[in-house]
Amino acid sequence: MENNLSRSGSRSSSVCELEKDFSDMEIMKSRTNRRNVMLRSQPARKAKRVRFFRNGDKFYSGVIIPVLPERYRSFDSLTADLTRVLVDNVTLPSGVRTIYSLEGRKIGKLDDLEDGQSYVCSGFGEPFKRLDYEASAVTPQSFRLSGPESLSDSASPSPARANNRLSRYLQANGSSTTGNGTARVSPAGDNVVRPRIVTIIRNGVKPRKVCRLLLNKRNSPTLEHALAAITECIKLDTGCVRKVFTQSGTAVTALHQFFDDEDVFFAYGNERVNQEDFELEFEESRAVLQCRKTPITRNSRTGPKPRMPVKAGGGAARAASEAGGGAAGDAADDVAAPLLPQPLRLKYNVGKIIGDGNFAVVRICKDKTTNKEYALKIIDKAKCKGKEHYVEAEVRVMRKLCHPRIVSLIEEQDSPEWLFLIMELVSGGDLFDSIAAASKFSEPQARLLIGHLTSAIAYLHSLSIVHRDIKPENLLVEVGSDGSIRGLKLADFGLAVEVWRPLHAVCGTPTYVAPEILLETGYGLKIDVWAAGVILYILLCGFPPFSSPDGDQEKLFDAILSARLEFPAPHWERVSAGAIDLVANMLRPQPELRFAAEDVLDHAWMADDYDESCDFRTWYDEDSS
Ligand SMILES: Nc1ncnc2c1ncn2[C@@H]1O[C@H](COP(=O)(O)OP(=O)(O)OP(=O)(O)O)[C@@H](O)[C@H]1O
């Protein structure tokens, strides 16, 4: 369900790392509570609000810390806390070793600190540097606070609070914010931002969660926005991302870094950064590769034939399948049965795995009474955490649908951990594997498949539902007893929504994504026709119409946005004019000019008696001249 630009992996984002952040907060909160209890039994003592600068750093606007004897029992506990706070914002490799007054006087004890005054923290062996530190200070609201003030800020991850934190992060890193905390777009901002998929690794226990995120002008006009998008993407629901590093260990402090050479980023909450964080475990490397998977193809008229994109997901299923597993009802493979809610257990025998995705495993199952086989999709709710709405939408949409070219939902059962969908079984695998096996299809075969796909799309569109993830992996193939393809059915409605107004959510799968999604001007039903056009193109020649020579996602998007549709020889030399005309009309960049699903079905090439012996070259060149 989730092989797409924004959702891949994100539905299952773990929250453990941020929970660390949160549990730190909780510890601090309980300390605060303890303090409050103590304060009730003692005369209240006002905290000294003291500001600390970084020695020699004229850009760091300082941090205000409320200094209370109950909080800091020794001078060392203050320097330790200062170290913790400052390392988030400035370079301080050895931690805070010495505190100076603004005049350079060494401070040796807590009592020397005066309320409302500022001080300078230096590291090991650093001489005091005299600077106009207070000139870099800005309005007190923008300071990063440590202690009770920041606790209230951190405990609740409301967007406004998250924004405040982001402002502080930015400020601490030298980025500009306006007085109200809104980041100003850097002068370069407009120029640097272009649609780009980056890989985000959420810091934590290895193997860590790896997510894909599309950055673009809509979600990343500023560094602050980009950080908020990352927070959202990795589901940092106990706060916001405070630090981001590239894989080479460089702190990201400017927006353009997200669009430079490196495309893997490590996101942190409050926790420390360690050198080992930047080393990927095998599983993580695999996930990063998966995130980067884009077609490695060429569009030139000469040179080697382009290749198909890498298939999304399914590896585990195939491995499991290849490792054995009998037909439905084989006791040896009935491992999923205990998971089943009673009504399903009574009714079905569960058999081998026939497919899997990022969030679900699909098994064959058999009705004990009728012996009819079905597909049982077992959705792991833990993997969908934070993205439950996708699953709910999938079921809601599927319940509404009844079409011969759409996989039907027979029944569903819920449990606290799993969602079970009994679906019509389509046993020929998916179209991706068929394309891989056949390389390309004859025109009558392509006509049959596109006819089935388009009639499913036309039906969906008649209900104002857009699928948004049409791709060969989501098209299940019906095969005859001789193994030949008889048709296909559309599956996986995880991204499907009803469209009543232009949509803006960037989603889909890179190879099949329509230009209007990338342009973020708002899109509608026609994106499904675009994706079907890409599939028709692939069926006819064996490779996708838009790709990048080196698998670079940005170049792929550039190719899609440039919309330069080519039919390179020799691969297209023998394809009929009608097929090319249909492809060209399905892949028109302007949605208003692009064919609707009904137009596709009405096209001359779709007629069973279409004569394929037209001269493509003559026809196409005339048309384009
Ligand atoms: N009704 C079905 N009949 C036969 N096989 C099916 C059926 N539904 C799904 N499958 C197989 O299971 C695989 C995974 O299913 P599906 O794509 O719905 O899972 P998912 O977790 O939602 O995937 P994704 O990672 O794409 O979001 C499919 O690619 C397909 O091979």
From TrEMBL:
It comes from Galleria mellonella (Greater wax moth). InterPro entries: Doublecortin_dom (IPR003533), Doublecortin_dom_sf (IPR036572), Kinase-like_dom_sf (IPR011009), Prot_kinase_dom (IPR000719), Protein_kinase_ATP_BS (IPR017441), Ser/Thr_kinase_AS (IPR008271). Residues 48-134, 196-279 form the Doublecortin domain. The gene is LOC113522443. Keywords: ATP-binding, Kinase, Nucleotide-binding, Transferase. Belongs to the protein kinase superfamily. CAMK Ser/Thr protein kinase family. CaMK subfamily. One of its GO terms (biological process) is intracellular signal transduction. It is an enzyme of class 2 (transferase). This is non-specific serine/threonine protein kinase. Gene3D superfamilies: Doublecortin domain (3.10.20.230), Phosphorylase Kinase, domain 1 (3.30.200.20), Transferase(Phosphotransferase) domain 1 (1.10.510.10). One of its GO terms (molecular function) is protein serine/threonine kinase activity. Its EC number is 2.7.11.1. It catalyses: L-threonyl-[protein] + ATP = O-phospho-L-threonyl-[protein] + ADP + H(+); L-seryl-[protein] + ATP = O-phospho-L-seryl-[protein] + ADP + H(+). ATP binds at residue 377. Residues 143-162, 296-327 are annotated as: Disordered. Residues 143-157 have a biased composition (Polar residues). The keyword Chaperone does not apply. Residues 348-606 form the Protein kinase domain. It comes from the Eukaryota.
